[in-house]
Amino acid sequence: MAGDVPLYRETFRIRGDDFERGGEVATHVKDLLKRFGLPPDVVRRVSIANFEAEMNVVMYAEEAELELLVFSDAIRVAVQDRGPGIADVAWALQEGHSTATEAMRARGFGAGLGLPNIRRHTDEFSIESAVGSGTTLRYVVRCGRPEGAS
Amino acid sequence: MKLGQIVTALGCEVLSGQQRLDLEVQTGFAADLMSDVLASARRGDLLITGLSSAQSVHTAEVADMGAILLVGGRRPAEDALLIARRRDLPVLLTSRGMF
């Protein structure tokens, strides 16, 4: 990241099980990111990742913190939750693998695409999880990658 | 085609974005699973969905979609419409089914 000193840093709280408000943080962060003159494609990609990460917290965790760091040429995000954790991360990362309930599917989620979607839209992605304690996602979206490339 | 043309062709009720019916949409993306949308929809696409919750509005927002066409006649909750109106995102409602 250019200089490694962020232009901006803020942490947001996501409440688990709050379906009414699920997606609000991602949308709010997207508005904020428009201020920095970053390419719209970069803002869009990180917003999609943030939304998927937020919905995962709403569906599965008790609560989480989303830490946003904005650099002149990239956006770095860490989403750390307190929750059940993921027993088999490799399984969860595969498309179509989902532990969603019927109630979640009725809301339009649970296709098993959340984590793969985050990975697809970001340039770096890592996930750490401990059963009984929680999950942390970290991802980076950089300027300069052509839209549509994976 | 323009949103206004879609409204006329399908007999839609315009729930949000009445002033934006001049908007041109190239492609429609029909889905009820929001992760499908996030995987493949492109900026400016029309989101066609039966999902009338706030999440479809947020999905359209984060993916920079042009407008939402709700099918199946189910009116969304006020909170979902409030978000759409505040962000100037057109939401059309038709009683027709998705296909």
Description:
The complex is a heterodimer of chains A (150) and B (99). Chain A has 150 residues and is α+β, with helices and mostly antiparallel strands. Chain A has one domain (8-142): Histidine kinase-like ATPase, C-terminal domain (Heat Shock Protein 90). Chain A is built from five helices and five strands, in the order βααββαααββ. A five-stranded antiparallel beta sheet of chain A has the order 1-2-3-5-4, covered by helices on one side. In chain A, strand 2 (63-70) and strand 3 form a beta hairpin. The radius of gyration of chain A is 15 Å and the shape is globular. The model of chain A has no long low-confidence stretch (mean pLDDT 88). The model of chain B has no long low-confidence stretch (mean pLDDT 89). Chain B has one domain (3-93): HprK N-terminal domain-like (Udp-n-acetylmuramoylalanyl-d-glutamate--2,6- Diaminopimelate Ligase, Chain: A, domain 1), CATH 3.40.1390.20. Chain B has a five-stranded mixed beta sheet with strand order 1-5-4-3-2. With 99 residues, chain B is α/β, with parallel strands linked by helices. The interface between A and B is medium-sized, with 30 and 24 residues.
